[in-house]
Automatic annotation (TrEMBL):
SMART domains: AAA (SM00382). One of its GO terms (cellular component) is plasma membrane. It is a multi-pass membrane protein. The keyword Transport applies. Residues 45-288 form the ABC transmembrane type-1 domain. The chain crosses the membrane at residues 20-42, 54-72, 133-152, 158-179, 241-263, 269-285. It comes from the Bacteria. It comes from Rapidithrix thailandica. Keywords: ATP-binding, Membrane, Nucleotide-binding, Transmembrane, Transmembrane helix, Transport. Residues 330-564 form the ABC transporter domain. It is found in: Cell membrane. This is ABC transporter ATP-binding protein. Its main location: membrane.
Length: 582
């Protein structure tokens, strides 16, 4: 746990030092009245106690109590500030770190598990640490301060009291092993519950239509039941060992009492010292008992910290270049790629796309078209061969450099739950209002924007739920226009649109791709008929390459696809089946 905390503390060292300073000062002031009480006891056992001295000591104790209230408030404030600063910085670091990881990393990790680290594990750390850091620091500093007092009075009895700590720690270690084992199961159960609940909410329409709501949705019910069992085990199983550690402290205190009485009877220990140990010795363990009560939650916090640190330490690549190339032609050189590490999705792909030209990728579903676009955008990295932009292998470029060079317009558009204006502004956060409006106008957005209640300031809902598919697509194109990147990737941008929206989108795309290197993925071959180059893919290999005229003359796979689409466009439903025959 200590190593994890030290790693996290490096995130905000200034806040940590400030908090520890006040915790140390608070611990001293908590323990000091007991030492002052020792002075009063000694004075009372003098042949002629000095009452003025006793009152002076009592007055000092009262003053220290008032000062302790002030220090306690400063300690609490510093502790909370440190906790919130750590959790806030952790979330930002995790978010920035995730952006730098390749898509292959996300393929290996459950998305629900990653979300659990960023949201639940950080929140778990924040809640537990915020409520226990004062107890931990107080236990350490108060115990150390009291130990110094006790050793100064009588090292023999103090040593006996301190000897309880290693034995108590043995039981704490056993509890630690149990918590680590059960805590890992609890995290898995928690993630499974979150994933099943998300699945339940996202698929509620289908669940209702098939009557799987409530107890009928067994997977969610089973996940919640497993989470309940794991939670109970994590809380209950370590408890007896933590209790045994507390019992050890009680037994050693009783042993100290017996030994002290023995020393008193032999005349090697004065009664003031014995009384001091009876009072202060018992208080020595009080802070530790508080920590033992919180120990289960502390270890559970440590599991969350381990998961956070493992994600922060996930391997990042080193890049030799950090500036964009001078030209924006694209080349694939014998590229092989697999999502799973088994069968290759792309098999020895090689082609060249000149700068400021339009290339179309066509072929049956699963032939590798979208995979090629993903490699150009560096959402994934090729396992063999190289993908080059401007003659530079993009694996040598920092991801943010690659992202700056590319704009993407996909069939599935995601808009954030923000205004239309801010969703377009994502393309270039430094753009002026006039530039944003010009991009929206060029993307054919002005008509539907004027019909919205607040125009550009209208919120679009989560995922753009308040806009139609065509409207979302036009906002996406406006965003790409505002970015004005030299390379544009279009993946089925008009595949699922109605004819009216398709006209708007085609106009917007014509504005977007001017003087750009354009890679288009399309099933509607009519839309890419005028492309400079058409690459025909099948089962991860290039079958044909050329323009439309050449490929039609060859009479290969492209010709088959073209003829099939032309034939499909001529289909008509001539008659309707009578309702009584359905």
């Amino acid at each position: 746990m200590l190593s994890n905390l030290l790693y996290i503390f490096r995130i905000a060292p200034g806040a940590v030092r400030k908090s520890l300073f006040w915790e140390l000062l608070h611990g001293i002031f908590v323990a000091s009245p007991t030492g002052m009480l020792l002075l009063i006891i000694w004075e009372l056992f003098e042949p002629e106690p000095d009452q003025r001295k006793i009152w002076w000591i009592a007055g000092i104790m009262g003053g220290m109590l008032l000062l302790q209230f002030y220090i306690a408030s400063k300690t609490l404030l510093a502790s909370n500030q440190m906790t919130f600063q750590l959790s806030n910085t952790l979330r930002l670091k995790l978010g920035n770190h995730l952006q730098r990881l390749s898509m292959g990393y996300f393929k290996k990790r459950d998305p629900g598990d990653l979300a659990s680290v960023v949201l639940q594990d950080v929140a778990n750390f924040e809640t537990i640490f915020g409520h226990t850091v004062g107890n931990i620091a107080g236990a350490v500093f108060a115990t150390l301060t009291l130990s110094v007092f006790l050793f100064a009075v009588d090292w023999r009895l103090a040593l006996l009291l301190i000897a309880a700590l290693p034995l108590g720690y043995l039981f704490v270690k056993i509890a630690n092993w149990v918590i680590t084992k059960q805590g890992a199961k609890l995290v898995l159960a928690r993630n499974a519950t979150g994933a099943r609940f998300l699945e339940y909410v996202q698929g509620i329409r289908f669940i209702k239509s098939y009557g799987m709501t409530g107890a009928h949705f067994k997977s969610l019910e089973r996940a919640m039941r497993d989470f309940k069992k794991a939670s109970i085990r994590t809380e209950a199983l370590p408890g007896p060992f933590v209790l045994l550690a507390a019992i050890i402290f009680e037994l050693f205190f009783l042993g100290m009492v017996g030994l002290g009485v023995g020393y008193f009877e032999t005349g090697t220990l004065s009664i003031p010292v014995l009384i001091a140990f009876l009072i202060m010795g018992y208080r020595l363990y009080e802070p530790l008992k508080v920590v033992l009560v919180d120990y289960v939650t502390l270890r559970y916090m440590n599991i969350s910290l381990t998961r956070i640190i493992d994600l922060l330490k996930a391997e990042e690549q080193e890049w030799e270049e950090d500036c964009p190339p001078e030209h924006f032609d694209i080349a694939f050189d014998h590229v092989n790629f697999s999502y799973t590490g088994d069968e290759n999705v792309l098999k020895g792909i090689s082609f060249y796309i000149p700068e400021k030209s339009m290339v179309a990728l066509v072929g049956p579903s699963g032939s590798g078209k979208t995979t090629i676009a993903n490699l150009i955008a560096r959402f994934w990295d090729a396992q063999q061969g190289s993908v080059m932009i401007g003659g530079i292998d993009i694996q040598l470029l920092a991801p943010h450099t690659v992202y700056q060079m590319i704009s993407e317009v996909f069939q599935e558009v995601y808009l954030f739950d923000d205004t239309v204006y801010n969703n377009i502004l994502i393309g270039n956060p430094k753009a002026s209002k006039e530039q944003v409006w010009q991009a929206a106008k060029a993307a054919q957005c002005q008509e539907f924007i004027r019909s919205l209640p607040q125009g550009m300031e209208t919120r679009v809902g989560e995922g753009g739920s308040r806009l139609s598919g065509g409207q979302k697509q036009r906002v996406s194109i406006a965003r790409a226009m505002l970015k004005d990147a030299p390379i544009v990737l279009l993946d089925e941008a008009t595949a699922s649109l109605d004819p009216e929206n398709e006209v708007y989108i085609q106009r917007a795309i014509q504005q977007l791709v001017k003087d750009k290197t354009v890679v288009v993925i399309a099933h509607k071959l009519q839309t890419i008929k005028n492309a400079n180059q058409i690459i025909v893919l099948d089962q991860g290999r290039i079958k044909e390459t050329g323009d439309h005229t050449y490929l039609m003359e060859v009479g290969g796979l492209y010709t088959q696809l073209w003829n099939q689409q032309q034939k499909a466009q001529s289909w008509k439903i001539k008659t309707m089946m009578p309702a009584n025959e359905i």
